[in-house]
């Protein structure tokens, strides 16, 4: 029986190049160094980095990041609880949620639900925060799908949404938006 060599119509490389070729939105927020809080930011960023949101699917911060437990490496840091600040495991992950939420607004994702903090935060503009407590915020993806890119770099908490299609212009005053390649955002 003779062999026939088949060349695939699509390769992994061609799909990756086509599906996530554009940075649809990017923003970062600065954070102060606090070892426990910074570790929590790193863990939440690692959980989200590379997450692919399929067309029409719903993203849940809490489902993606998971429960913030000591077994997973989360540390106690400041969170808002009711009308006071207290120490809880996972303190600070709201900054990751807020930065990603803020970024998704400019990536043309539809927000299904979100909760805001009891008090204002200083890392995103007023009213642009999102807290995963008491309920997660979710985004509905564009019809073409997208990928979230996250990595904690020095004292910055960046977020990017990659996909295919035109980038949405970011406003001049924002949570420090800028246009960068995915390579420079992820530090690779």
What do you see in this structure?
The protein contains five helices and nine strands, in the order αβαββαββαββββα. With 188 residues, it is of the alpha+beta class. The strands form three sheets. A four-stranded antiparallel β-sheet has the order 1-9-8-2. Strands 3-7-6 form a three-stranded antiparallel β-sheet.
Largest sheet: 4 strands, antiparallel
- The global form is elongated
**Helical stretch count?**
5
What ranges have pLDDT less than 50 throughout 5 or more consecutive residues?
Answer: 170-188
Q: What is the chain-wise order of helices and strands?
A: HEHEEHEEHEEEEH
Q: Residue share in helices?
A: 10-25%
- DSSP summary, beta strand count: 9
Radius of gyration computed on alpha carbons: 18 Å
> Which percent range describes the beta-strand content?
15-25%
Mean pLDDT: 76
Structural class: alpha+beta
Distance between the termini: 47 Å
How are the strands ordered across the major sheet? 1-9-8-2
């Amino acid at each position: 029986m003779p062999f026939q060599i088949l060349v695939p119509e699509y390769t992994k490389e061609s799909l990756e190049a086509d599906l996530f070729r554009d940075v649809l939105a990017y923003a970062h927020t600065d954070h102060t160094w606090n070892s426990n809080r910074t570790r929590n930011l790193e863990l939440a960023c690692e959980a989200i980095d590379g997450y692919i949101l399929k067309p029409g699917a719903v993203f849940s911060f809490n489902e993606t990041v998971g429960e913030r437990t000591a077994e997973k490496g989360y540390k106690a840091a400041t969170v808002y609880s009711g009308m006071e600040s207290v120490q809880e495991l996972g303190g600070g992950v709201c900054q990751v949620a807020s930065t990603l939420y803020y970024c998704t607004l400019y990536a043309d994702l539809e927000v299904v639900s979100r909760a805001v903090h009891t008090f204002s935060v200083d890392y995103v503009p007023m009213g642009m925060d999102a807290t995963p407590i008491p309920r997660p915020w979710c985004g509905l993806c564009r019809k073409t799908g997208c990928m979230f890119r996250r990595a904690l770099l020095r004292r910055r908490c960046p977020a990017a949404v990659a996909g295919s299609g035109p980038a949405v212009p970011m406003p001049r005053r924002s949570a420090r938006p800028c246009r960068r390649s995915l390579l420079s955002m992820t530090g690779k």
